[in-house]
């Protein structure tokens, strides 16, 4: 009998503390409209404040060290030697257009802790970004670090992209009494896209193809020593051995990958039962047999806007559509307050876990473009709060300053800031939750307007920066791009604050103010026109009566 930490148990275990539950998609050059590589990342946690990290490039003297603090908690884990030079990093992208994202899959419970380990998954990402120029180098840096200093986290999937290649790295520690991790990294074939969302996805992998696959020397032998695998090497499945998929892994995690794939490729209906948690297993080794492929070919090449929209999904138009069941309420709200599972009469039920969720701290779409100088080619399209209603602002990887609206220290989860994008965007979304079906239309319209402007301006900004780079050097290009990124992000936040003012005026107290040609109406005497009182849809009233019977029935002949 396998001992493992199921996805349901994993969510319950971490839900009371951090609730990390993220979503990544990966896009190769041949799958994108313009030949860029892209990865996405939604950092979803009830305890994560949305801000944009920044580390400038730096030189370090001989003997310098670096403290490692767990990303989730800030806990001090230990010290490692610093390298002579570290690269500039904006969020999750460095100055060489290298980008890294992650999702936690947990995996086997007995591998979830390792005494004395120093490197947690967050530190691996940000240290690698400061030390590597390419995806392959990042994999080498990350795996060398865990081999030398131990792996502090549970199972993790990493998305790693440079301007030419896109890789998935999956890693899990060796548990107590051991040091380091077992891992596999595979390159996504050009022309294809992939994704992962809190469930390990690498199954079998090529054992003799170093151009497209790397793995730890003991990834199979370690499993044999533990008694977890007895088959032949070529049939070894990393996920099925170290993080077997179960109902929760499919319904809460893989369903998000399925939803993203379903937006850009036909034929995903064949995996709907798997996405619903109906996992089938073989009788020989208990491996899952009806899993989705690790990568697919999209029906058409994807633009950066297409990829942004992949991150905006509540299963609309599918059997799992979160806007259609009674839990959405009268205004079709596609969110459910936690926990993820609940009971009625001792029977356990679940909420859906969509790509778009209310507890997102920040998210991004990275874009790495090989035909431009590095400081210009890399764009981290960065947003805060819920992916469905955020705006992705272009943060060029060569910038040397972070916008005030995204700056670390500009507010936190317990301190509101009038200039913080995280707080301004949350002000809009949390008010919109009250009458979602009406207000989300205004939000999406403004979002499309702002993002459309950013995307339309990008070629001109690229060209201007490239000319500066050629004529006056990289420093001038960086200065120009910094000014552009900072100004646009701060202006976007101001625009969103105006949107919050508009929404509160229009939808105050459940009423709807009348408008004409973009102006609120007044009556002939100059006073505000009487608002509309839309009430609730008929189907909601019917649901109330079905639940309460005659409790609200008006009795004929009753007097006041």
Automatic annotation (TrEMBL):
Residues 1-21 form the signal peptide. It comes from the Bacteria. The keyword Protease applies. It is an enzyme of class 3 (hydrolase). InterPro entries: Peptidase_C69. GO terms for molecular function: cysteine-type exopeptidase activity; dipeptidase activity. Its EC number is 3.4.-.-. It holds the Pfam family Peptidase_C69. Keywords: Dipeptidase, Hydrolase, Protease, Signal. Coiled coil: none annotated. GO terms for biological process: proteolysis. It catalyses: an L-aminoacyl-L-amino acid + H2O = 2 an L-alpha-amino acid. Belongs to the peptidase C69 family. This is Dipeptidase.
């Amino acid at each position: 009998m396998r001992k493992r930490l199921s996805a349901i148990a994993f969510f319950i275990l971490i839900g009371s503390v951090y609730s990390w539950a993220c979503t990544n998609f990966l896009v190769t050059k041949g799958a994108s409209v313009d030949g860029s590589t892209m990865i996405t990342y939604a950092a979803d946690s009830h305890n994560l404040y949305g801000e944009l990290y920044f580390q400038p490039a730096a030189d370090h003297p001989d003997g310098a060290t670096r403290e490692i603090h767990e990303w989730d908690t800030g806990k001090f884990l230990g010290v490692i030697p610093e390298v002579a030079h570290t690269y500039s990093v904006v969020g999750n992208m460095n100055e060489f257009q290298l980008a890294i994202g992650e999702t936690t899959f947990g995996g086997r419970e007995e591998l979830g802790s390792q005494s004395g380990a120093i490197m947690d998954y967050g530190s691996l990402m940000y240290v690698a970004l400061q030390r590597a120029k390419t995806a392959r180098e990042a994999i080498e840096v990350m795996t060398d670090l865990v081999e030398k200093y131990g792996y502090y986290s549970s199972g993790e999937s990493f998305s790693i992209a440079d301007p030419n290649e896109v890789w998935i790295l999956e890693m899990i520690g060796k548990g107590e009494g051991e040091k380091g991790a077992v891992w596999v990294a595979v390159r996504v074939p050009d022309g294809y896209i992939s994704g992962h969302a809190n469930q390990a996805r690498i199954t079998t992998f090529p054992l003799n193809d170093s151009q497209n696959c790397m793995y730890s020397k003991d990834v199979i032998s370690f499993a044999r020593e533990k008694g977890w695998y007895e088959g032949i090497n070529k049939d070894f499945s990393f996920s099925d051995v170290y993080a077997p998929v179960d109902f929760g892994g499919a319904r809460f995690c893989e369903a998000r990958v399925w939803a993203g794939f379903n937006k850009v490729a036909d034929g995903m209906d064949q995996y709907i039962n798997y996405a619903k948690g109906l996992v089938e297993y073989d009788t020989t080794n208990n491996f899952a047999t009806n899993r989705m492929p690790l990568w697919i070919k999209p029906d058409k090449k994807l633009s950066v806007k297409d990829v942004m929209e992949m991150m905006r999904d509540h299963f609309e138009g599918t059997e799992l559509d979160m806007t259609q069941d009674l839990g959405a309420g009268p205004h079709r709200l596609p969110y459910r307050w936690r926990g993820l599972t609940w009971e009625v009469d001792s029977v356990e039920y679940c909420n859906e876990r969509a790509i778009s969720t209310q507890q997102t701290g920040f998210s991004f779409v990275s874009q790495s473009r090989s035909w431009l100088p590095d400081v210009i080619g890399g764009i981290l399209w960065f947003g805060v709060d819920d992916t469905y209603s955020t705006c992705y602002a272009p943060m060029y990887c060569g910038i040397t300053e972070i916008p005030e609206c995204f700056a670390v220290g500009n507010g936190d989860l317990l301190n509101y800031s009038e200039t913080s994008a995280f707080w301004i965007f949350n002000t809009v979304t949390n008010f919109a939750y009250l009458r979602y079906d009406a207000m989300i239309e205004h939000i999406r319209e403004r979002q499309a307007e702002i993002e459309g402007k950013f995307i339309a301006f990008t070629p001109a900004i690229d060209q201007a920066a490239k000319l500066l780079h050629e004529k006056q050097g990289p420093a001038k290009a960086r200065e120009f791009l910094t000014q552009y990124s900072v100004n646009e992000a701060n202006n976007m936040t101001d625009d969103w604050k105006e949107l919050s003012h508009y929404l509160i005026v229009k939808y105050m107290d459940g009423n709807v103010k009348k408008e004409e040609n973009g102006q609120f109406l007044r009556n002939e005497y100059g006073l505000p026109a009487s608002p509309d009182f839309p009430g609730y849809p008929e189907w909601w009233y019917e649901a109330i009566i079905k639940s309460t019977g005659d409790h609200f029935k008006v009795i004929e002949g009753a007097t006041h």
